[in-house]
Amino acid sequence: MRLIKRLVIHCSASPNGRAVSIADIDRWHRERGFKRQAAARKAFRPELGSIGYHYVIELDGTLRAGRLADEVGAHAAGHNADSIGVCIVGTDAFTAGQWKTLAKVVAEMQGRFGPLAVLGHRDLSPDKDGDGKVEQHEWLKTCPGFDVAAWLAAGMKPDSKHVLPNHKAAL
Ligand SMILES: [Zn+2]
Asked: How far is the CA of 119 from the centre of ligand 1 (A)?
């Protein structure tokens, strides 16, 4: 088993509230030239030939596995070897079900592989001014659309601005 040190959270950067399946993301990744290794594909989810993430959380909160944890992902340049990639469908507002599943999967991965550093894709941007923090002006992208550290500090309770309007009551 490879050594896993981080869990990186991503978003699909598709419109908030629009259903996108793991098969859709697999197709997008194929179009970008991603390709799983033949042996890994044969062993797990052979229908997904390209998916770069280990998990995708679909709009209704369903957790879909893309790659086995032991398979290196393709989701965070320079950080794939020792990380797990989880993608939540949307851009910066998600359903109650998605938030619950995200909390569950983070706890589960901590239990299996922890302690893991849990962070957003944008937090892996280079710290250009060298002050020890990756700040907004340094983000290469905005993915996953919310502040992962703040979410963790709040006991995995999302800020309501990141919850889809008709889902606020359900959290
Ligand atoms: Zn990302």
From this structure: 11
